[in-house]
Specification:
The chain is of the alpha/beta class and 362 residues long. It contains 12 helices and 14 strands. The structure holds 3-isopropylmalic acid and magnesium ion (MG).
């Protein structure tokens, strides 16, 4: 039997709770599926900072490189907000993405029918929604230099960040989007701010080059990011695959999450070269306000594991089975607090995990 190793990086806040639920599900698939999964844990984020003095210890990177795939919870919290930049929990996550070269971040926003009324938007706007946001993850303003804050001779301060992309960076993320579109609805919308930012005008031109040379059958459109944000809440079903820069993708994917009912529903996969382990994590953050109270929704992390089954292990049937189990539990009316609606049964983080296992076993 094939064996695969998954590194668990629970991180901060609700991270440990949602990863613990997903670890149970990993265990279920290890027992009942064609692949045996082993797991180990390592520190990242604020938890790593508290224990070792750095949010991204060398041992964590070494363990990550050795793993077949990585499941991450969340990083950050008020406790670490006043640390210098290099010590902040977020640097752990950004360091992991950068060191592993995980340039492609896939964030599927799917509205399960049972949750169409849980969104703050009208049912008819979100019901049946299935879009894929492809966010560039290792470039752009998140990593560009110069960066930093300086105090000028007159005592005023000046802060700088730099939006920067090279054409190969644009080409490889565009290919990811076009490839995905080819297997889905056949449409890519590239989101930029080409009317103001030269860097993203270049982005648009390079996306067009890849399209013309390699993907003539995919339908390509372009949208400015302000319009894209508005269209996502006005008529999200016009989109199939959206591809965009690191920062625009960060923002648009949080918007998209609300179309699915809750930020607690959105999974993600961060992928690099085929031989690098992917990182799978919920899009939501560490939610320190509800941490440790068994209120967190583990579904985004569970669905991230489904993405792992699909993208890292090519276990499509198993991924589909897990997604169907989540759908079934929601159809049964079980809800964590974030997706609670009148007439439904409110469950804890652990009860939601157990219900998914039960649905798998049925
Ligand atoms: C995300 C998060 C991260 C990001 C933070 C925690 C660094 O918001 O994954 O969307 O900005 O990429
Ligand atoms: Mg974000």
């Amino acid at each position: 039997m094939t064996a695969r190793h998954i590194l668990l990086l629970p991180g901060d806040g609700i991270g440990p709770e949602v990863v613990a639920e997903t670890a149970k599900i990993i265990g279920w698939f290890s027992e009942h599926g064609p692949v045996k999964f082993t797991t180990s844990g390592a520190l990242i984020g604020g938890a790593a900072y508290d224990a070792t003095g750095t949010p991204f210890p060398d041992e964590t990177l070494a363990a990550a490189r050795k793993a077949d795939a990585i499941l991450l919870g969340a990083v950050g919290g008020p406790k670490w907000e006043n640390l210098p930049y290099a010590s902040r929990p977020e640097r752990g996550l950004l360091g992991l993405r950068k060191e592993l070269g995980l340039f492609a971040n896939l964030r599927p926003a799917i509205c399960f029918d049972a949750l169409a009324d849980a969104s703050t938007l009208k049912r008819e706007v979100v019901a049946g929604l299935d879009i894929m946001i492809v966010r560039e993850l290792t470039g752009g303003i998140y990593f560009g230099s110069p960066r930093g804050v300086e105090t000028l001779p007159d005592g005023t301060r000046r802060g700088v960040n730099t939006e920067v992309y090279t054409s190969p960076e644009v080409h490889r993320i565009a290919r990811v989007a076009f490839d995905l579109a080819g297997k889905r609805g056949g449409k890519v919308c590239s989101v930029d701010k080409a009317n103001v930012l030269e860097c993203t005008e270049m982005w648009r031109e390079e996306v067009i080059k890849v399209h013309q040379a390699e993907y003539p059958r995919v339908v390509l459109s372009h949208m400015y990011v302000d319009n894209a944000a508005m269209q996502l809440v006005r008529n999200p079903k016009q989109f199939d695959v959206m591809v965009t820069t690191n920062m625009f993708g960060d923002i648009l994917s949080d918007i998209a999450s609300m179309l699915t009912g809750s930020l607690g529903m959105l999974p993600s996969a961060s992928l690099g070269k085929p031989d690098t382990p992917g990182v799978y994590e919920p899009v939501h953050g560490s939610a320190p306000d509800i941490a440790g109270k068994s209120l967190a929704n583990p579904i985004a992390t569970i669905l991230s594991f489904a993405m792992m089954l699909r993208y890292s292990f090519d276990l499509k049937a198993e991924a589909g089975k897990l997604e169907a189990a989540v759908k079934q539990v929601l159809a049964q009316g079980l809800r964590t607090a974030d997706i609670m609606q009148p007439g439904m049964k409110k469950v804890s983080t652990g009860e939601m995990g157990d219900a998914v296992i039960k649905a798998l076993g049925a």
